[in-house]
Amino acid sequence: MEAARQTHAAGKVQDYLKQIGRVVVIEGKELAVFRTSGDEFYALENRNPHPKGGPLAEGIVSGHYLYDPLYDWKIDLRTGEVQAPDKGQAAVYPVHIDGDTIFIGI
């Protein structure tokens, strides 16, 4: 049985630029938080699933996808799934907004 997630405040909506990743550390986990041009928020572990690793926060956001310029990978922000022909999975964390505060579940 999975333990219940706790939510943690991760700043205000206005603290996040659209289509730019921001690193947030919660409970020792380094997360990459993204705000899309449509004002949707996504949080992924800030660790590229590529065998050589690297940060995800430096990727380029377009729609619901993150483009990693280092390895030319495309990752779905909603699921963390690396798109074909590449394979891999980034850990995703639930995000919700209450008022103007962003909360992330860990």
TrEMBL record:
GO biological process, one term: nitrate assimilation
Highest taxon in the source lineage: Bacteria
Keywords: 2Fe-2S, Iron, Iron-sulfur, Metal-binding, Nitrate assimilation, Oxidoreductase
Entry keyword annotation includes Transport: no
One MF annotation (Gene Ontology) recorded for this entry: nitrite reductase [NAD(P)H] activity
InterPro entries: Rieske-like_NirD, Rieske_2Fe-2S, Rieske_2Fe-2S_sf
Start and end residues of each Rieske domain: 8-104
NCBIfam families: nirD_assim_sml
Name the UniProt record assigns to this protein: Nitrite reductase small subunit NirD
Recorded name of the encoding gene: nirD
